[in-house]
Amino acid sequence: MTFERDAKTLETPWPFTGREDELELVRGSLAAGRHGIVVTGPAGCGKTRLVTEAVRGTDCARAAGTPETRHIPFAAFAHLLPESVTLHRAVHLLSGVRLLLVDDAHLLDDASAALVHQLAVHGRTRLIVVATDGTPVPGAVSRLWTGELLPRLALERLPREEAAQLLTGLDALTVNRLHGLSQGDLRLLRELLGAVRERGPLTRVPGADEWAWRGTVPMTATVRERTAHLLDRARPEEREMLDRLAFAEPLPLHLDDLDVTVLEHLEAEGLVRVDDLPHALGSARPADTPVSVRLAHPLHGPVLRAAAGRLRARRLARTPRECGPALEAEAAALTRRIAEADVRELPTPVGEWLVAEGAPVPAGYAAVRARFARLRGDLREAAAWARAGLRGAAGDRACHTELALAAAQSGDVTNGHGALVARPHGGGAATWRAAARGHLDAALAAVTEEPYDAVRLGAPDRAAGRLTGVFATHADALTRADGAALDRAAEELEARGFLLFAAEAHAQAARAHRDPRAARTSRTRAVALARRCQGARTPALSGLVLGELTARQRQIVTLAAAGLSNRQIAERLTLSVRTVGNHLYSAYARLGAGDRGDLPWLVDLPATQPA
Fold first, then answer.
1. Which end of the chain is flanked by fewer CB atoms within 10 Å, N or C?
2. String of b and e for 100-123 (b: at least 16 CB within 10 Å)?
């Protein structure tokens, strides 16, 4: 995704990104001796995009089911078979096809479904069969995996970390919002992105080469189609109830304040969720507190609010000031979690609602959100929250510190703020600023307030006697250079939500292990966690992921990191320029790199142009 001078000229190619492990699994199912694979998952999770990438460059025949032809025999294979054909003849004719991709198999007519099943039984044709979860599937198709004819890959919706790879150029809070509204549905994600581009407004983030989206959800034709079941309710009392819930967000309404009969109908249709669990902020609810009610899908509230008339909105709308106590409760819950060394994801709807609405975010709250995100390894999100706090309180020291830390641990000592990040702000900012510049001795000398920083920088002796819990365990394992103990510490850190710290501990374990196989396992785990901490560039991770590439990819990436152009690499290795480009594209996906500028850090080489 590229941004020109005007956000309206935003270009949005949709490259295949993420899903590397799933892609390799599908490709592996087509290897010699394999009969294929079934790929299932919810609508919009990228099943078709995945298998299309997997068969790219192969001689592949394609067929697809459609709703309109479900009752026409062999309709899906009409382009591959004669006009009149028996099942036996169809199997014979298609047995010569080496690779067959069958998309939307849940929509196949019975004859086509039986044909696919028989092809799987005969085993001469490699099959990739794609079906959508949550819809009726012909028995002949479901028996492909229940009868163990083909292995099944069940895809989930695209995770936020992988969606972020598609939404480069947008600030982390916008990425989170788009992913939350779409729930990882790629089709809806793209529709929302296109609508935001056209109707926005997209505004440039001060001090960063990013754009932010705040305000109402654009009511496009596709968004309206997706929510027609909400907007076109036949019963006025149901629409009124939905609007009440929509305008109550981000706070839930109590069941005692609502018409239970209407709610029962809405709950039966899956439109509302009745919360009878502990309060979302983590505190136990008193026994006499009534359960609360929310809209079931994050997109529904914004759409209902956008579609409401001005008078209805004025009657029902909640103001940011009314959310003050709940916002304070969220900040307190986050602070308590940090003190308990538990930064697992925590629902924080009030702060996210304020950001989405474009309302001011108190600096104190923003600093806590930034710290929580940074400890989780979400450095871009941490920077975005810090900037949100600084918009209303330009001199807030805590927000400046969090912004400096997020920038430095991303390998950026300026991050567009120059002097702001260059000035030490306490809280470890000076340590990580020096580390980002490669001055580890200076970084360690600056460790004062955060002794665990010394462990992350590889000098656990500097933190002796100053740590407790899992952090002390990590320090002890590193002191003893015990690879297995470091891996165990990493697992506990991950379980507590400290993904970046866990990645660093696994990386340290990879260097400590004497057994090459154990080292490879630790490195693989570190890479997987580091990918989830997009943008993190700390000394422990430096050069970590190069070992995950193929030999040819390592060769090309190393030359690219040293400054050679694609053409220069091609000439040196006697390859085509296109082949070099393809290898780099694959390497970027594996390394989590955005472009050539990321490579010197990843392969631990100086970013200098060769003579």
1. C
2. bbbbbbbbbbebbbbbbbbbbeee
- Residue 311: CB atoms within 10 A of its CB come to 8
Q: Which two tokens stand for residue 572?
A: 């040196």
Q: What is the pLDDT of residue 548?
A: 59
pLDDT tens digits, residue range 211-255?
Answer: 999 988 888 888 888 889 888 888 999 999 999 999 998 888 888
Residue with tokens 């997706």: 226
* Euclidean distance between CA atoms 528 and 508, whole angstroms: 15
The amino acid at 488: R
Q: Could you tell me which of 508, 530, 536, 610 has the C-alpha nearest to residue 569?
A: 610
Q: How far is Cα 404 from Cα 477, in angstroms, rounded to an integer?
A: 29
pTM over 0.85: no
Read off the tokens for 39: 């790929």
Q: What is the pLDDT of residue 420?
A: 43
Residue 367's nearest CA partner among 330, 401, 395, 320 is 401
At 550-591, the pLDDT tens digits run 777 778 887 887 778 888 888 888 888 888 888 887 777 666
The pLDDT of residue 594 is: 57
d(CA 291, CA 128): 46
Q: Please count the residues of the chain.
A: 611
**Distance between CA atoms of residues 10 and 197, nearest Å:** 7
The amino acid at 196: V
Q: What is the mean pLDDT of residues 197-206?
A: 84
| Contacts for 135 with CB less than 8 Å, ≥ 6 apart | 106
Report which secondary-structure segment, H or E, holds 367.
helix 363-376
For residues 518-544, give the mean pLDDT: 85
For residues 197 and 2, is the Cβ–Cβ distance under 8 A? Answer: no
What is the spatial distance between Cα 254 and Cα 29, in angstroms, rounded to a whole number?
A: 51
Specify burial of residue 32 (Cβ count, 10 A radius: 0-12, 13-18, 19+).
exposed
Look at residue 508 and tell me whether its pLDDT is greater than 90: yes
If DSSP codes are grouped into helix, strand and coil, which group holds residue 359?
Answer: coil
Q: How far apart are the first and last CA of the chain?
A: 32
Which has the closest alpha carbon to 35: 151, 154, 153?
Answer: 151
Q: Are strands 253-254 and 292-295 parallel, antiparallel or unpaired?
A: antiparallel
At residue 258, does pLDDT exceed 70?
yes
258 with 293: CB under 8 angstroms? Answer: yes
CB 40 within 8 A of CB 131: yes
Contacts of 534 (CB under 8 A, 6+ apart): 161, 164, 165, 379, 380, 592
In the chain, DSSP finds a helix count (H) and a strand count (E) of 31, 10
Helix (H, G, I), strand (E, B) or coil at 12: coil
Q: Give the closest residue to 405 by CA, choosing from 442, 439, 438, 380.
A: 380
CA distance 203 to 210: 9
Provide the token pair at 93: 């004719």
Instruction: Kindly provide the b/e burial profile for residues 48-85, where b requires at least 16 CB atoms within 10 angstroms of the residue's own CB.
Output: bbbbbbbbeeeebbbbbbeeebbeebbbbbeebbeeeb
Which residue, chain included where needed, has tokens 């462990």? 455
CA distance 412 to 503: 20
Band (pLDDT 50/70/90 cuts) for residue 3 is: very low
Q: Cα dist. 285→275, 277, 339, 564, 567 in Å?
A: 11, 8, 22, 61, 64
Place of tokens 């895809």: 155
Widest distance between CA atoms in the chain: 82
Whether a cis peptide bond, with omega within 30° of 0, leads into 201 is yes
